[in-house]
Amino acid sequence: MMKKVYINSVGSISSQKTFDNDEFLNDIINYHTTNISVVNPNYKEYLDAGSARRMAKGIKMGVVASKIAMDEAGVESVDAVITGTGMGCVIDSEKFVSRLIDNNEEYLTPTSFIQSTHNTVGGQIALGIQCKGYNFTYVHSSSSFESALIDAKLQLTLDEASTILVGGIDELGPHMIQVHGLIKHIKQEKTIDNLAILNSGTEGAVFSEGANFFVLSNGKENTCYAELVDVEILNTLSKERLEQQVRSFLNQNKMTINDVDVIVLGNNGDVSFDEYYSVLTNGLFKNTQHTAYKHLSGEFKTVSSFGFWLGAKMLKTQSIPQIVKLNDNAPKAIKNVLIYNQYRGENHTFVMLRTC
After folding, report:
1. How far does Cα 51 stand from its chain's mean position?
2. Which parts of the sequence belong to the Beta-ketoacyl synthase-like N-terminal domain (predicted)?
3. Which residue spans of the chain are classified as CATH 3.40.47.10?
4. Over the chain, what HEC string results?
5. What architecture does CATH give domain 229-354?
6. Angle between helices 174-182 and 90-102 (to 10 degrees)
7. φ and ψ at 81, to 5 degrees?
8. Which of 338, 344, 310 is nearest to 10 (CA)?
């Protein structure tokens, strides 16, 4: 018999103060720039001073977010570590290539190169908790996190593992900001109010970074946030076929439009691509509670892991923070949450969460 999959804990480091699991978007930070960094927890509480100094920013975020999740779940180790990342440890990649150019390819230290691989975060987490099990990193652009979720879900439902640490992690580097600014993927305005970007009416997004980790299990613990019902990825999907695809996704889970209490949308204020979300908010889900999160978190390749965090928190707390609401169709109770994301018209992902 196929087992159910539960989200037993969360750990989030983002552009908001989300590292404290006792809080739920109570104290919102407002930014006025087109590229935003994370709010760092006190890393010394989780890492010794030497490790904290040596670790690159992305590794530090990932290791600490995973520690927060594991502490809440009350587990010392897990059967597997599965991470998703779009850009890996991009800052170390930038450093290495810059030194390569500056030093005419001579006298290079290998540290930045060693730490720049995409699977560095997963490796460091496993070393820290002495997990010698399955360790895999998915690098599938903006569907990297959902690819990791599908892998974990398959192993847990088939009882090949009982506890898996899954996360999405990306960092923001200077060269990346420069390149994405040139091709206008980042908004061109000098200053912009991040809390108002969803109505900006301009091209591009506000870029950011973050790490969101979750302990998934096929056993329900007291700390349970939600049940992970289903995940689906479509590389290409036209606006015309979007509603049909949503119906199909719900049908395969024996659900209807009316069963969805809250929809979590990936609007990022890019006027060229936010129309995908309008198709659903003006159509199938016009009477449903709409929520969004990228005005709080910014945009990065695995930002949908923050949307996943938001959905899980709403189900556990049975509350919807005012700051994420796009309308006032409040449900009587939050039982089913649908998360939909796409980036620049590609990598459409659907995730269904349910109360546990």
Report:
1. 25
2. 45-219
3. 5-217, 229-354
4. CCCCEEEEEEEEECCCCCCCCCCCCCCCCCCCCCECCCCCCCHHHCCCHHHHHHCCHHHHHHHHHHHHHHHHHCCCCCCEEEEECCCCCHHHHHHHHHHHHHCCCCCCCCHHHHCCCCCHHHHHHHHHHCCCCEEEEECCHHHHHHHHHHHHHHHHHCCCCCEEEEEEEECCCHHHHHHHHHCCCECCCCCCCHHHHHHCCECCECECCEEEEEEEECCCCCCCCEEEEEEEEEEECCHHHHHHHHHHHHHHCCCCHHHCCEEEECCCCECCCCHHHHHHHCCCCCCCEEEECHHHHCECCCCHHHHHHHHHHHHHHCCCCHHHECCCCCCCCCCEEEEEEEECCEEEEEEEEECC
5. 3-Layer(aba) Sandwich (3.40)
6. 90
7. -125, 120
8. 310
Q: How far apart are CA 137 and CA 168, in angstroms?
A: 10
- Residues of the chain whose pLDDT is less than 70? none
Cα(270)–Cα(206) distance, integer angstroms: 9
Torsion sign (Cα): 123, 126, 131, 133: negative
CA dist list (Å): 218 to 167, 230, 337 = 17, 14, 20
**The whole model's pTM is what?**
0.96
CA distance 139 to 209: 16
Q: What is the pLDDT of residue 1?
A: 80
**Would you state the structure tokens that stand for residue 226, as one six-digit string?**
């939600």
* Residue 8 near residue 224, CB atoms below 8 Å: yes
At 137 the pLDDT is 98
Measured in degrees and rounded to the nearest 5, phi and psi for residue 110 equal: -85, -5
Q: For the purposes of burial, counting CB atoms within 10 Å of the CB of 258, is it exposed (0-12), middle (13-18) or buried (19 or more)? A: exposed
Rounded-to-integer distance, Cα 160 and Cα 283, Å: 40
pLDDT score for 144:
98
Tell me which CATH code domain 5-217 carries.
3.40.47.10
